[in-house]
Model the fold of this input.
Amino acid sequence: MVRSAEVTGRVEEVMGFLADYLEKEVHLVSRVRNALIYPIVVIVLFIGVAFLLLAVVLPQIEPIFKESNVAIPLFTRILLATGVFLKQWWIFVVLFVGLLLALLFNYLGTKEGRAVADDVRMRLPFFRKLFERLYVARFAESLSVLIKGGVPIVQSIEIAGHTIDNVLYQEVLHEVAEEVRRGELLSRALEKQEHFFPPLVGQMVGVGETTGRLDELLDRISRFYSSQVDDVVSNLVELIQPALILGIGVLSGLLFASILLPLYNLVQTF
Done:
């Protein structure tokens, strides 16, 4: 974008756009990160407590249950077997998990890994709409600035595609740019990619092409979907903490119930 701005003489406008873009990006990421700090701390503590119970506490009380012939629930038996395994092989479990995570992060750093991660991201039921709106807003805003700067439409589409941190969208927009290069209208090319661009985008781009105000319509598309992203993120931030805490509460209840129920059966035998 800076290179194109240097050619068209609109460096100041593009720099302002990039500053706003980075500011929005940092604000969005920081909101989600701040919302996740407390639940992550709680999850880490829960994992630590669960590990101690499985590896230390349960193996100590298992002989008591066996000697008293108390009926042990299936879930408790699974936890007891898991505890014995962790007590004997916990070093290898830690090394295996560490190696697995290292391989996973290394794979995600490759082009194929990024494509797989982007594909999974776009298949998630709730997050798909969030990412779709975010990418559409980025594309429309970038394309609007480039068109205002006098950059040719095909080159503008290619550049705008690279502002989207998603390999799938970059490939789709490359196809759109090729279709426009062959003489297809941008609105028609976007309508063909309905899996990635809502029908409203193609319709509004078509209006912009007809009226000769494509940059203004793209700017409206960007503002519209940016506001939707803000609403979704706000709702997500409000729901993350109670949802995670509820899940941890259920898991904690199951974990302690697996210990207390056999103890209750043991007391009943006396």
User: Anything to note?
Assistant: The CA atoms of residues 119 and 168 lie 7 Å apart. The chain has a mean pLDDT of 82. Residues 2-268 form a domain with the Receptor-associated Protein fold (CATH 1.20.81.30). The two ends are 79 Å apart (CA to CA).
